[in-house]
Amino acid sequence: MRVAPHDLAPSELAFVPFVSVENMMRIVHDAGVAETIAAIADRIEADFLRWESFDKTPRVAAHSEEGVIELMPTSDGEFYGFKYVNGHPANMARGFQTVTAFGVLARVDNGYPVLLSEMTVLTALRTAAASVVAARHLAPKDARVMAMIGNGAQCEFQALGFRHCLGIEEVRLYDIDPAATAKAARNLAGTGLTVTSCDSAEAAMEGAQIVTTCTADKKQATILTDNMVGAGVHLNAIGGDCPGKTELHRDILLRSDIFVEYPPQTRVEGEIQQLDPDHPVTELWQVIAGTAPGRTGRDRITLFDSVGFATEDFSALRHIHAEALRTGHYVDLDMLADPDDPRDLFGMLARAKG
Predict the structure, then answer these.
(1) Which of 42, 127, 138, 152 is most open to solvent, judged by the fewest CB atoms within 10 Å of its CB?
(2) Catalytic option among 47, 241, 257, 313
(3) Is there a catalytic annotation at residue 334?
(4) Exposed e or buried b for every residue in 73-88, given b needs 16+ CB within 10 A?
(5) Domain with CATH 3.40.50.720 in the chain
(6) Full DSSP string of 303-336
(7) What is the CATH number that goes with domain 5-122+311-351?
(8) pLDDT for 221-273, tens place per residue?
């Protein structure tokens, strides 16, 4: 077993573990996709319970007509982490991923990075894990049917996470692109889920107790209208994640008990950007900690207005860091200069000339 970074000498820390896409897939398959989502969900929930120990700030975003590039930083005083992530809805038509990402985890005591990791796959796992955490506390306990409105890259991760962690038995799929629904149905075949492909959002909603919306277009859309959402449903809105991008009709929000990750970010980027700035919402960490109520009645509509927050990525990076060291599924990157004398960086360079 490899030595943990905290136990290494400065010269040994010059090499930084790097988890490539290939090694990320090895780590996930070693444990299982659903099991990895569950493990990350447990990390996220544990970190929500120590919410006040984290530095928190809305993500730093650079918007353009084509999409957005964002940095998402946080620290718990021992480790610092950040994710670089983009969101470019038009990418799919050009053969590129809509979302790509990488992340860094570093020690606070000396500033040395201890992990560089791909986060395109990891973000999909983390997003499903965060949805699971919210649903544990907000969804009807007897929920067995979930609707997935939007069947892109996140769809299968959500379905598998909810089956494994909450006992969902049927997933009802709808996307404006039938090819996306067909792709998701193929990928979910043999997973133990009953998969129903639908030709409208209304059909997908039939009998669903949990509804996840996850569409890509950067616009204020109406994926669900007020008359489509009945009493007692839990809404997991994960597609609206930047200014000017929403999925739910405003009237649905006015009927719902709304739960968010970090209000200063969600009020700008989430579904609640449609509401007055002082509209009441509950922070999810408070529900988990038992200081605020979650679902207060069988007929209540609960809405997790999820835009993704840096602490969730931090939790995912901590999990992958531990798993990479445990499994050895990483490579060492020579990315930190390590002169014999910390003051003699030039001398190190000069001697390398040979």
Answers:
(1) 42
(2) 241
(3) no
(4) bbbbeebbbbbebbbb
(5) 130-309
(6) EEE----HHHHHHHHHHHHHHHHHH---EEEE-S
(7) 3.30.1780.10
(8) 788 999 999 999 999 999 877 778 889 999 999 999 999 999 999 999 999 99
